[in-house]
Specification:
Helices cover 38% and strands 10% of the residues. By secondary structure, the protein is an alpha+beta fold. It has a single domain (11-87), classed as lambda repressor-like DNA-binding domains (434 Repressor (Amino-terminal Domain)), CATH 1.10.260. Helix 2 packs across helix 3 (40-47). The two termini are 21 Å apart.
Amino acid sequence: MPKKNPPTGDPILDVLKAERERRCWSQQDLARAIGRQTYQTVWQWENGSNEPKLSNLRDWAAALGYDVTLTARSAETPTAVCGAVAVAAPPDPKPPI
């Protein structure tokens, strides 16, 4: 069983990290799936030493079958949710080739 790293503290990143681990994908597998050469960027995101840009977050989520949607909050609708929401899609347990 793969080693589990502690949560990042960010609920969205924690969901994506947990899904990667559930699928038994390495950080390198995910890096390849989103067009990165090495695992180091993924490692930085998952360990909180660097935050992914929105475009990278969307690529990361899409590689794992998730969709990222933003909902804005305004003064007129103070109860609206502000931030990113990840919505699950059917999982695919196979790592990218």
